[in-house]
């Protein structure tokens, strides 16, 4: 019950900040960025395999859409602000990679893992998960996105299918293969 | 690595954060100012303005047209006297169109 109250208070506080930010109040906007930005940045980095420039673009566009929605935000609506931002960022990350794949069809033709070790490990604070992040960055793009969305973010398979533009069975296959490969990679490093 | 351990590791990663670069933070805050949407609600002043302003504007237009034609002719170009429709459209055009 206390958790519910705290959650409700958080939602109200964030909605109030959003309204004030929507009226151009810089301090409120800054407070919201400080509350939601770091988590969103970590998510974007994971989704993009550590592509810092792309992650910053995703975070910037997500917040831009949030500011535009400030006037219509429903504090009692189904989505928490963090959930809404996360979903926008997820869609942006998937779209960005889809566009990149269209521009370089040969690279995307095979389900090839990212060759270079990612800079992601150095960017995300939690020391004990650097191995996980490095391993995630080495997964093929769609496998990584599916694993992050399913097992880190907790989206349902139908939701992920809609985001990735594929069927639920394809999502199940991607997450299963991704997890298997992840376990192999983490086993190889001996870090976990 | 056991599947349960991997699941735990992935779940725990959900709360990770990464610092937002200062330059990006500055851009985000600045964009909030630029995107500050005007209020869509009219408010009491807006409604009152509409209720009084619209009929007043209509009455003023009627008064100008009906009671102050000289003013209208002064303001509008080339309307120094009463203009008949024939002069505007031309009699020939009207006859041709009718026939």
Which descriptors apply to this entry?
heterodimer; A: 192 residues; mainly alpha; Rna Polymerase Sigma Factor, Chain: A; Arc Repressor Mutant, subunit A; 2 domains; 74% helix; B: 99 residues; 6 helices; 69% helix; 0% strand; rod-shaped
CATH homologous superfamily name of the largest domain in chain A? RNA polymerase sigma factor, region 2, helix turn helix motif
Cα separation of the termini of chain A: 36 Å
Mean pLDDT of chain B: 77
Tell me the radius of gyration of chain A.
18 Å
Describe the largest sheet of chain A.
none
Helix share bin of chain B: 55-70%
Largest interface: A-B, 44 and 32 residues
In terms of quaternary structure, what is this? heterodimer
Strand content of chain B: under 5%
What is the name of the CATH class of the largest domain in chain A? Mainly Alpha
Taken together, the total number of domains of chain A comes to 2
Q: What structural class do the secondary elements of chain A suggest?
A: mainly alpha
Overall structural class of chain B, as computed from helix and strand content, comes to mainly alpha
The fraction of residues in strands of chain A falls at: under 5%
- Total count of helical runs of at least 4 residues of chain B: 6
Could you describe the 3D structure shown?
The complex is a heterodimer of chains A (192) and B (99). Chain A is mostly helical. Chain A has 10 helices and no strands. Chain A has helices at 2-22, 26-47, 52-69, 81-103, 105-109, 120-123, 130-137, 141-152, 157-164, 168-189. Chain B is mainly alpha-helical and 99 residues long. The interface between A and B is large, with 44 and 32 residues.
């Amino acid at each position: 019950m206390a958790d519910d109250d705290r959650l409700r208070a958080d939602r109200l506080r964030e909605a109030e900040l959003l309204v004030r930010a929507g009226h151009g109040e810089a301090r409120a906007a800054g407070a919201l960025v400080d509350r939601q930005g770091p988590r969103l940045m970590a998510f974007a980095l994971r989704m993009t395999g550590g592509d810092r420039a792309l992650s910053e673009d995703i975070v910037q566009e997500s917040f831009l859409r949030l500011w535009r929605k400030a006037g219509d935000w429903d504090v009692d609506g189904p989505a928490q602000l963090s959930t809404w931002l996360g979903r926008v960022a997820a869609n942006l990350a998937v779209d960005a990679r889809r566009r990149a794949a269209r521009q370089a069809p040969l690279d995307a033709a095979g389900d090839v893992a990212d060759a270079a070790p990612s800079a992601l490990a150095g960017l995300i604070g939690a020391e004990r998960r650097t191995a996980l992040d490095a391993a995630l960055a080495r997964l093929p793009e769609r496998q990584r996105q599916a694993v992050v969305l399913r097992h880190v973010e907790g989206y349902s398979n139908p939701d992920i299918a809609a985001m990735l533009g594929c069927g639920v069975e394809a999502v199940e296959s991607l997450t299963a293969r991704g997890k298997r490969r992840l376990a192999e990679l983490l086993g190889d490093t001996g870090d976990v | 690595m056991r599947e349960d351990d991997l699941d735990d590791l992935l779940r725990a990663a959900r709360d990770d954060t990464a610092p937002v670069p200062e330059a990006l933070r500055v851009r985000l805050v600045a964009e909030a100012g630029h995107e500050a949407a005007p209020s869509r609600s009219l408010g009491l002043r807006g409604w009152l303005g509409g209720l009084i302003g619209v009929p007043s504007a209509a009455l003023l237009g009627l008064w100008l047209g009906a009671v102050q034609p000289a003013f209208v002719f002064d303001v509008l170009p080339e309307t120094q006297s009463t203009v008949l429709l024939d002069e505007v459209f031309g009699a020939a055009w009207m006859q041709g169109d009718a026939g």
